[in-house]
Amino acid sequence: MRAVIVVSIVLAGFDQAAPATAQDRVDPMAAAVAQWFTMIEQSFVSLADAMPADRWTFAPKDGEFKGVRTFAQQVKHVACANFGFFNEVEHKEPPANCEAGGPSQATTKAELMQYLRESFAYASQVMKRLTPANALDAVEGPYGGKTTRLGVSTLAVWHATDHYGQLVVYLRLNGIVPPASAGGTP
């Protein structure tokens, strides 16, 4: 009987999840911002992937669309901006000229999708390191202006969301329902 009790206690101990290490923990303040960034990441990446490769050169022409970016240019701009914003958060030099796509040589759908995914992954890692102790540290740069780490992080959420909304129009003008609208992502 004792052996059964001892084995039960030992096995119960294996059933418990290991506690997160300090390195794995995300401050609740950072998690509050990161949840919205993760949501736009999922929606934006699935939207970009939904556009067929042969339509990435599409830019609306009818109506008030003079001089707008192509679909590919929009995606490249958002990827560059993600790197730019979060380089500023880390007090690093951001990539130059994100308005025009920045320094990345990516041009094909596959290359731009990889660049986009890498930009969101990098941004998410930086955002997870925000804490109440460093969130209000001053940062300054060409993309976020004079603000704080938290300010640039929330600007990045807004920026990706703004361009997501623009690209929804591009998809719909091509007869494609965005995955988030079709129930594919949050």
Number of domains as seen in the coordinates: 1
Q: What is the helix tally?
A: 5
| Element-level helix/strand string | HHHHEEH
Q: State the distance separating the first and last CA atoms.
A: 52 Å
The biggest sheet, with number of strands, parallel, antiparallel or mixed sense and barrel status, is: 2 strands, antiparallel
In what range is the share of β-strand residues? under 5%
The unreliable regions are 1-20
Q: Write down the CATH class.
A: Mainly Alpha
Query: Going across the major beta sheet, what is the strand order?
Result: 1-2
Compute the number of strand runs.
2
Architecture (CATH level 2) name:
Up-down Bundle
Shape: globular
Oligomeric state as shown: single chain
